[in-house]
TrEMBL record:
Occurrences of domain HMA (ranges): 47-114
Taxonomy, superkingdom: Bacteria
Keyword presence, Ribosomal protein: no
Regions crossing the membrane: none
Protein known as: Copper-transporting ATPase
SUPFAM superfamilies, alphabetized: HMA, heavy metal-associated domain (SSF55008)
Alphabetized UniProt keyword annotations: Metal-binding
Species this chain originates from: Zunongwangia profunda (strain DSM 18752 / CCTCC AB 206139 / SM-A87)
């Protein structure tokens, strides 16, 4: 009798799990679709700026200082500046901050800045 109760409980539990998992799967699929759609829309509006920066003397003060300053600006999503490579990669929302403003902010700190095109050529900024 106890064995029968265990089997019945297992069947009920499995049926309940299947019933819930069907609904959960649909909800999760919808959530994933919404996240993917949001990510695509977000990526369509964000831009990445590749810069060559001259005049940095160290990572901790110069490069990290640029990153800290930029991250405080509205519209800057990500900033990674490297003293060793004399470069910076900045992800930003052009609806909130312009490329010109980013270049100006870095120049105001005393650095020379050049925009690097996708082909690797520098464009004076």
């Amino acid at each position: 009798m106890i064995g029968l109760h265990k089997e019945l409980f297992a069947v009920l539990l499995t049926g309940t799990t299947l019933a819930f998992s069907g609904n959960t799967a649909s909800a999760m699929d919808q959530k994933n679709e919404n996240q993917i759609e949001f990510k695509i829309q977000k990526e369509m509006t964000e831009k990445i700026l590749h810069l060559k920066i001259k005049g940095m003397h160290c990572q901790s003060g110069c490069a990290n200082g640029i990153d800290t300053m930029l991250k405080e600006q509205k519209g800057i999503i990500k900033s990674e500046t490297s003293f060793d490579k004399s470069s910076s990669i900045i992800e930003y929302d052009p609806k909130q901050i312009s490329e010109e403003k980013i270049l100006s902010l870095i120049k105001d700190r005393g650095f020379e800045v050049e925009v690097v095109t996708e082909k690797g050529a520098s464009v004076n900024g």
